[in-house]
Each structure stands twice: as structure tokens, then as C-alpha cells.
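Tutorial handout. Part one gives the primary structure; part two gives the three-dimensional structure as C-alpha cells.
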Amino acid sequence: MAAARERAAEHRRRFDLRFEAYFATLPERLDTPPLSRFTPRCLELLRDLSLRGGKRLRVALLYEAARLVTTDPVPGLAEAALSIELLQTHGLVHDDIIDDAPVRRGGPSTYYAYRREFPAADRTALGLAVLAGDLAAFLSMRVLLEADVPAELRQAMLEVQLNAGAETVTGQIVDLERDFRPLPDEEFLHTVCEYKSTRYSVLAPLRLGLLAAGEDVAAHDARLRRYATLVGIGGQLRDDYLDLFGDEDATGKSTGADLRAGRRSYAVSALLAAADEAQRAVVESALGDPHLPADRVEQLRELARLLGVDAKLRSDMRRCAEAARAEAEGWRPHWRAEAVAFFAGLPLANLLPGG
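Part two.
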């Protein structure tokens, strides 16, 4: 587990330098209207959000997927990493619009940065935030075209990212649909997780890394999907747990966001399922109140602890991590042992302290 953490941290350090260099040269390489003031500000906000934190787990998955096949330098990985994280930036910008979230990664969300700059022009602020997210998505695809790899490989990598982007948008749609169900079952929650997060955050990096290294991805698709599904669910459980039980200073996001948004996340759904009729009424009365005060969030947090929701979520995270580890261990006949060990150790390394 410690080795997986160290390797992931090293990938993050190297990538952050490359990401900073990308944004430093982007204004010169992107054909934008020379008289525009709004366009440079848009690029500045995208740069700020992109470089402000983030675990870069997708980048680690990408590079370690290539290491499953070879330790030699692999052309195209740098561009694939930039593409993955630019698509993530797109998702964060649009997520924060949908959720009306003021904070992201310890700083203002792109949407709220624009709202502060245009306090008397709400439609302009909204429009600029939407367009900033759109620009990040297009840049994500554009950067792959710059990869110095054979055209066939470039096309295959673009196909992976385009599919991942489209599937993520459908996941956002289903995510909103989920909250119109009184109590979504586990299968529906897993489906939301798969489309909204897993396919672009875990499966796409695995596919891109293996593709760049020359592997036949289709021959391994089933095992990649099983691993990605388990890691994705575990990661979403962790995020939902932290939204209800986390420390704002540590996460960089306000706690209780799912309650205020009326989002029936894994944590909120578990709370509703465990509550009796009277307790459920208390929870339902708070759901969807954008001005829910901190003391009410604390009241619901204590109720969730009383009902064992925190313990259930931690148990579910542990179960997913153990299953993902076992899945990765089954890769040993197919790929390099050192890289397999990374994928086997990563799910347990990402458990919450004490989990």
C-alpha cells in the first residue's frame, strides 16, 4: 500500500509540472480573438482550477497501465494524461454549476468566480462558466491530436476519450434523475457511479495506458471493467462519506452539499434506509434546502452516526477495496508483476484512515 501511494505521488509531482507548462504555452498555441478580454480570463480560471490540488489518480492509473506492459518510455502518455485531466476540469466546472457549489479544491469554483465578477449579470456569469467547461472538454480532445504517435493509435485514443466524455454527460443526466426517486436502490446508485465517474476516471485511463503501450485492450476488457467498477464504487462511497462526515479543512469542500442539493447519494440513501418513519421525515425536511444551516447538518450527521451509517459506508468501502485487490491479483498471469502490485495495493491505499 505504501509503495502504491509513493508511486502515485511521484506521478502527480511529474504531471503537475507538465500541466503547468501546458497552460503556460496554451495562450500562444490557441487561436483566440486578440481584442478579447474575457478569453484570457477564461483560460486563467481553467488554469487555476486545474492546477489547484487534485490527487491525479487518473494520471497514476494511466502511467501504471502502460507499466503493466513495459518499463520503456511510451509515446503518447503525456498527451493522454493532459487529456484526462482537462476532461476532469470540464467535469468539475459543470458539476459546480449544476450543484451551485461555491467552493472547489479549497478555492472558488469557476462559476462562483464569475458570479463575483458579474454580480449584476447572472446570465453572463452562468454563460461564461458553461463555456469555460466546454472549452476544457474541447482542449481535452485537441491535445490528443498533438501526440506524436501513429495515426491509428491516435484515433483509438481519441475514441476512448470521446466515448468517456459522452458517457460522463449521460451519467450527469442519470445523476439528476436519481434525485427524483424516493429512495434509489443500490443498483441504480451503482449505475449513476459507473456512468458519471467510473468510465472516465478509471476505465478510460486504463484503456489509454494499455493502448499506448501496444496492448490489445479488447482482449482484457472484462477484467478491466470489473476492476474499474469496484474502484469507482469505492471512490464514490468515499466521496459521499466525506460529504457527510468529512472535515471541510481537509477536503476543501463544504460538508452537507448533498443534503443541501437534495442529492440521494450513497450516504444520504443509507441514512434514509436506516431511519424510522419519524427520523426519515426529519431527513426529508432538510433535503434540498440550499440554506440548510451548519447546525442542522451536524444534527443529521449525528443521526447518521447513531444509525450506524458511517460504519456501513466504511464497511462497504473496505469490501470494494478488498474485491478490487483480489481482481488485480488475478492479472499476474497476463502482465508485469511490479505494476500488478500497484493496482492490487491502490484500492486499500485509498481507504480512509482507520477504514
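Part three, for discussion. The first strand starts at residue 103 and ends at 104. Residues 2-349 form a domain with the Farnesyl Diphosphate Synthase fold (CATH 1.10.600.10).
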